[in-house]
Amino acid sequence: MADKQFSHSFPTLQQLAADVLAHARKMGATAAEVDVSEDFGQSVSVRCGEVETIEYNRDKGLSVSVYLGQRRGYASTSDFSLRAVRETVEAALAIARFTAEDPCSGLPEVELLALGEQPDLDLYHPWNLSTEDAIAIARRAEAAAFAADKRINNSEGGSVSSQQAQFVTANSLGFMGGYPTSRHYIACSVIAGRADAMQRDDWYSTHRNASALETPENIGAKAAERAVARLGAKKIGTGSFPVLFEAPLASGLLGHFVQAASGGALYRKASFLVDQLGQQLFPEFFNLGERPHLPAGLASVPFDNEGVRTRAREVVRNGVLQGYFLGVYSGRKLGLPTTANAGGSHNLILQSGDNDTTDAGDLSALVRRMGRGLLVTELLGHGVNYVTGDYSRGAAGFWVENGEIAHPVEEITIAGNLRDMFRNIRAIGNDVEMRGSRQTGSILIEGMTVAG
User: Fold this and answer.
1) CB contact at 8 A, 63 and 73
2) Residue 114: beta bridge partners?
3) pLDDT tens digits for 5-61?
4) Residue pair 178/13 in contact by the 8 Å Cβ criterion
5) Paired residues of 392 in beta bridges
6) pLDDT mean over 379-404
7) DSSP 8-state secondary structure symbol assigned to residue 359
8) Is the backbone of residue 173 left (phi > 0), alpha (psi -120 to 50) or beta?
9) Calpha distance 113→310 (Å, rounded)
10) Is 46 helix (H, G, I), strand (E, B) or coil?
11) What is the dihedral of CA 393, 394, 397, 401, to 10 degrees?
């Protein structure tokens, strides 16, 4: 059950959704879909032991799409009064009347909808955290960082956030679903060194359930360790070298893949992965699965934003692309069925297959395997062209010689092409950080351009 701190009961949100659909039908809509939601939470931060920010948020919203045949109109409001809700429906209808027909527009086929009982995915764990307790936790994280090493002499802060939300999605085909969710985190960012020799780094932990978060002391100590390790950073010469992406950054590589394999980019011909279904994009040991029903998963959902039932599937098997990330509209544009990805991907899990990379090990093992090259622990900028696949990012990390870290590096650029980078993956580590919708260990890529 939802927490009593919500302003509206869950049945109230359901009734609002039903009222929207009824009014749309009364006003002549041939079909309609509605989302009603509310959320609240608090965030605090401290810096050098002093409270820096305390923020509270409480929001609500209602959005409706109505259809007149294949003409669609959309409108939204944050006012849940009867008059405002009806005016929002009527505004969407007015827009639909002046919108061109789109043969791909419309609700999902009814057989795709998550009708009936839906699984409980354990997504709601309220954290009854007072402001005083949140401040104390943030201070503990920061204090642990200062205590870990005397070279930590400044801080960008310790922070704590707790967020809760609930929503209802419904449409005129008889679908209505929704549930409460929660997400919490603890973070710390600190600075090591002095004058022109300063370095910063951070660490954080996030989860649906606050009891599963790393301790503030562990988070602060990791942030300190990472910042100190970067002291004495140097530039390096330009060349072609293996590049090892630390796990938190490796998940970003999967994010680039998802973006390029998503319906909007594909039907607009704005992706280098157009017409690549069934093609070998990755090494044979590369297997990427989507698992939307993981208990307490940060991207677990029983249905997508259109009410389509989600299912586990293999996105990449033995390096071969098995499916894109499609909603109903983009699927129709491409002549393909929806993959229940309206709203994004759901718990992507990267695994190695049966070859010598299966036991690639943790980050230290991958460093030894790389021998000589660059370990990247920070990326800067957004230099990715999804049309061509060209990739160029500012980076920092560590230079590796003879399988051991030699020294930290900074002010460098790494470049390549995503198509080549995917094909040249040589190993996947087991050092997975459970932080979001994509789960992967560190990824070793052969032959990228590194410019000092």
Assistant:
1) no
2) none
3) 899 999 999 999 999 999 999 999 999 999 999 999 999 999 999 999 999 999 999
4) yes
5) 415
6) 95
7) T
8) alpha
9) 9
10) strand
11) 70
